[in-house]
């Protein structure tokens, strides 16, 4: 066990002064005895459970498994609740509150007697939020993924969360399914605790946490209601106590090469486009130089080998991936592309973690030469419409739009867009390019997942299921289609997207990584001179602070003052 002088918590509990008397008396007020904490590391179990968050429903019970492990290893566990962000329910966007949660995690670790933390998260933004906060606090930390829910089912048909919601919503708008069939889908698509069981943002980010080295090997794909998830939770509790002795902090794990491993795995998984925003923010918090160029370079070299919806044409979901061998098996196949010597929370290197990992279903986890998609799942485009970049997911779109030019149909807000989408007489064809703007980090606000713009009802009824769409918004990781996202700079701050007019021709060339607005520089300058900035979204409160300090998508949507390079952290609190 760690010596008393090495435990951060002893500053609160091991002195013979008035403050220590006060701290001890408050612990005893909760029914604890000095033997509960003396000589033991205090492990904070940060639990993002909430009755508003179905993805984390099981955390109310699962925290007891974590505590069991901590106690077995000789630690003293104390549960600490956090903000809980459910992407499906939080409006206008959970990304608006990711940095708030990150600040909460960092400051709660700093102000309480905490020697190490177990981070219980999983629904999309909770994973990066918790890792951002723990990275800045830099005490030993281990991430515990919520795990994917069970596969959905309705009338004998397997359903994938998000992906099938979009699919069947389009069918309903086209008049192809009945009301009873629709009700069956509503009740059957999400039927257990856990995160989306498609390769959405939740599964992407928990896989990234594991590949980065911040979660135990295999932890990210264990289904939420599997008994193995209880065992993994207890294992995390035992392991975090050992990490205190080893002083194994995030700063010793999260190197540039560790983040490159995470990006490599994400590309092979067919990751969510949201991964780019979160990983850039996480890397910069860790002091690692990672940017859009790293994503695009790795995407060109690493194919998609996880055959999980919404990629490819498969029906496979995360439960299938788990039984096929999970992330260690996929990483074993990526061995030539990984930095195997990187440290992880297991106490072993990446190479040691995946030694002996096997694939049990060759169709779910493919070999590199039999990939689902020949390159990684994402592509970064640049051009005069997006000087700082934008992203598209070629592994989950129609090939016909990989190279496309068409006239723009432009909307400044979602209500105007929706009116056109629902108009059976709309003047639009599948060759048009739908443009939605003022939906970025500041304009949304919080960059809502409006980027998978629905195909207009008029075209759905003609059988059209994909067309080119461009926005400064995000889209759900469970989404699909020819959607150009994260256009930077966003329109709200005067990016060139603000200057596009209906009828302008826009070209996208994914193989060449180009996006171009066919308008002269002179005309763009004239339009810019006429452009007026939109009204502020917030007049006070957290939203005002967010708007004043949020960075653009290509910089990870962190707040400027939270970045490591902004200045030194406050250090340990004074106790007098």
Give an overview of the whole structure.
The chain is an alpha/beta fold. It contains 21 helices and 14 strands. It has helices at 10-13, 18-29, 34-37, 59-72, 95-111, 126-137, 163-173, 179-188, 201-212, 227-246, 250-253, 256-269, 274-285, 292-301, 318-323, 326-333, 350-354, 414-421, 457-460, 521-530, 541-549; strands spanning 42-47, 76-81, 116-121, 141-145, 152-154, 157-159, 379-383, 386-392, 403-411, 433-436, 469-471, 483-484, 505-509, 514-517. A 6-stranded mixed sheet has the order 12-11-10-9-13-14. A hairpin with a 2-residue loop joins strand 5 (152-154) and strand 6 (157-159). The longest helix is centred in the middle third of the chain and has 20 residues, at 227-246. The mean pLDDT is 96.
What topology does this entry show?
Layout: H1 10-13, H2 18-29, H3 34-37, E1 42-47, H4 59-72, E2 76-81, H5 95-111, E3 116-121, H6 126-137, E4 141-145, E5 152-154, E6 157-159, H7 163-173, H8 179-188, H9 201-212, H10 227-246, H11 250-253, H12 256-269, H13 274-285, H14 292-301, H15 318-323, H16 326-333, H17 350-354, E7 379-383, E8 386-392, E9 403-411, H18 414-421, E10 433-436, H19 457-460, E11 469-471, E12 483-484, E13 505-509, E14 514-517, H20 521-530, H21 541-549
Parallel strand pairs: 1-2, 1-3, 3-4, 9-10, 10-11, 11-12
Antiparallel strand pairs: 5-6, 7-8, 9-13, 13-14
């Amino acid at each position: 066990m760690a010596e008393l002088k090495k435990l951060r918590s002893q500053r609160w509990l091991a002195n013979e002064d008035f403050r220590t008397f006060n701290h001890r008396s408050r612990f005893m007020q909760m029914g604890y005895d000095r033997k509960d904490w003396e000589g033991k590391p205090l492990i904070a179990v940060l639990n993002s459970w909430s009755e508003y968050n179905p993805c984390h429903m099981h955390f109310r019970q699962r925290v007891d498994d974590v505590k069991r492990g901590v106690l077995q290893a000789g630690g003293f566990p104390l549960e600490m609740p956090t903000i809980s962000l459910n992407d499906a329910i939080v409006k206008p966007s959970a990304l608006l509150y990711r940095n708030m949660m990150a600040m909460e995690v960092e400051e709660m670790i700093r102000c309480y007697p905490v020697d190490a933390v177990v981070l219980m998260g999983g629904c999309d933004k909770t994973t990066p939020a918790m890792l951002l906060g723990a990275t800045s606090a830099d005490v030993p930390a281990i991430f515990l993924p919520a795990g994917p829910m069970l596969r959905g089912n309705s009338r004998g048909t397997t359903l994938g969360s998000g992906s099938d919601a979009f699919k069947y919503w389009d069918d309903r708008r086209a008049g192809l399914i009945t009301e009873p069939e629709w009700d069956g889908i509503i009740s059957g698509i999400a039927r257990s605790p856990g995160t989306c069981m498609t390769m959405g943002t939740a599964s992407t980010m928990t896989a990234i946490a594991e590949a980065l080295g911040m979660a135990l090997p295999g932890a990210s794909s264990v289904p939420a209601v599997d008994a193995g998830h209880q065992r993994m939770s207890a294992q995390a509790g035992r392991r975090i106590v050992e990490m205190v002795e080893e002083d194994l902090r995030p700063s010793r794990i999260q190197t540039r090469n560790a983040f490159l491993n995470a990006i490599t795995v994400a590309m092979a998984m067919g990751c969510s486009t949201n991964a780019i925003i979160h990983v850039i923010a996480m890397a910069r918090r860790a002091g690692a130089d990672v940017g859009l160029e790293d994503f695009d370079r790795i995407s060109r070299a690493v194919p998609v080998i996880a055959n999980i919806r919404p990629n490819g044409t498969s029906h496979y979901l995360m439960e299938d991936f788990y039984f096929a061998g999970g992330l260690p098996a996929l990483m074993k196949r990526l061995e030539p592309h990984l930095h195997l010597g990187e440290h992880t929370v297991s106490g072993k290197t990446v190479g040691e973690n995946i030694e002996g990992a096997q694939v049990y279903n060759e169709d779910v986890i493919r070999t590199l030469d039999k990939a689902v998609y020949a390159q990684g799942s994402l592509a970064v485009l640049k051009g005069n419409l997006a000087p700082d970049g934008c992203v598209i997911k070629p592994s989950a779109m129609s090939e016909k739009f990989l190279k496309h030019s068409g006239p723009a149909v432009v909307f400044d807000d979602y209500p105007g867009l929706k009116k056109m989408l629902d108009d059976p007489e709309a003047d639009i064809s599948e060759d048009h390019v739908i443009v939605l703007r003022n939906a970025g980090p500041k304009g949304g606000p919080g960059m809502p997942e409006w980027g998978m713009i629905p195909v207009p009802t008029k075209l759905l009824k003609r059988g059209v299921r994909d067309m080119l769409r461009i926005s400064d918004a995000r889209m759900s990781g469970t989404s699909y289609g020819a959607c150009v996202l994260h256009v930077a700079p966003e329109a709200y701050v005067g990016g060139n997207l603000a200057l596009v007019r209906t009828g302008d021709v826009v070209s996208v060339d994914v193989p060449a990584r180009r996006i171009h607005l066919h308008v002269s520089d002179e005309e763009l300058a004239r339009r810019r001179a006429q452009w007026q900035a939109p009204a502020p979204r917030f007049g006070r409160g957290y939203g005002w602070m967010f708007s004043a300090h949020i960075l653009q998508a290509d910089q990870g949507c962190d707040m400027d003052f939270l970045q490591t390079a902004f200045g030194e952290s406050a250090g340990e609190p004074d106790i007098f």
